[in-house]
Amino acid sequence: MNILVFDIETIPDIASARRLYRLEGLSDGEVGEVLFSRRRQETAGGSEFLRHHLHRVIAISVLLNTPGKLGVWSLGDEDSGEEELVQRFFDGIEKYTPLLVSWNGRGFDLPVLHYRALLHGISAPRYWETGDGEQGFRWNNYLNRFHERHTDLMDVLAGYENRATAPLSEIAVMLGLPGKGDMSGEMVWDLYLRGEIGAIRNYCEADVLNTYLVFLRFELMRGRQTEKGYAAECQRLRDMLAAEDKPHLQEFLEAWK
After folding, report:
1. What is the number of other CB atoms lying within 10 angstroms of the CB of residue 254?
2. The CATH number of the domain where 174 resides is what?
3. For each of the chain's 257 residues, which pLDDT tens digit applies?
4. What contacts 67, CB < 8 A, 6 or more positions away?
5. Which range of residues forms the domain containing residue 231?
6. Could you give the 3-state DSSP secondary structure of residue 69?
7. CA nearest 254: which of 199, 185, 206?
C-alpha cells in the first residue's frame, strides 16, 4: 500500500482579491489587511481565517511511504508557482493511487486544492473518480467522508464530531512528538512578506512528519499494526531523517524522544 501524507500552507489570494474587491493600487500587504478586516467583520468571533476560495497555496509538503521508498519533501522549489505545486500534488495521486493521510485535510487542505485546481484548469481524473470509470472507487474513493482512501485523522479521531476535534500541535505533544515548536500557521503570511519561503516549507514538512507519526499510532490503536511493526516503522523514519542532510529534519529528529 502506498501512503501519501500531505499538508499545505497558504496565504491570502491577493490577485483574486484585487479583482473581487477592486483593490488595484494597494500593496500585497495592504490587500491582505483588507481581506483580514472583511473577515473579522463577517465572523461572530472576529476571526481572520479567510474563506477557502480566498487562500493561495505556497507550499505543499508530503511524506511518501511505498514498499521501496520513504521520504519527506516539499513539492517544487522555493520559486515554483502555485499551478506547478497543485499539479504535482495531483500528479502524485495519478501515479501512486495512495492512501491520503492528513490532519483536517477534509475540512481545509483538500477544499482549497479543489478551488486552486479549478482556477488553474488542472485535470485530476484519478482523484475525482467515484466509480463510473473504475468500480472499486464506488465503494472507496477520495471524496466520500466515510471512505478510507483519504484518512483525515482529525475527523476520524473526533468521531466525525466537530465539537470533539483537536489541534495537531496539542495531540502531537501529548504523544511525545516534536509538535510545531515555535511556529504556527498564523505566522506564514508575515514570513511570506519577508520572503522566507524556505522557512514556510520547513514548517510544512514538520507538520507532515507529526501527522505521519500520529497515523502510525492510529494504525496501532485500531489493530492494523502490531507493536513490533509500529516500532519498526518508527525506526525506519528515524533512519530516513538521520540520513537527510537538512538542519530542520535533524532538529525534528533531535526533538523526537
Report:
1. 10
2. 3.30.420.10
3. 999 999 999 999 999 999 999 999 999 999 999 999 999 999 877 899 999 999 999 999 999 999 989 999 999 999 999 999 999 999 999 999 999 999 999 999 999 999 999 999 999 999 999 999 999 999 999 999 999 999 999 999 999 999 999 999 999 999 999 998 777 778 899 999 999 999 999 999 999 999 999 999 999 999 999 999 999 999 999 999 999 999 999 999 999 97
4. none
5. 3-255
6. strand
7. 206
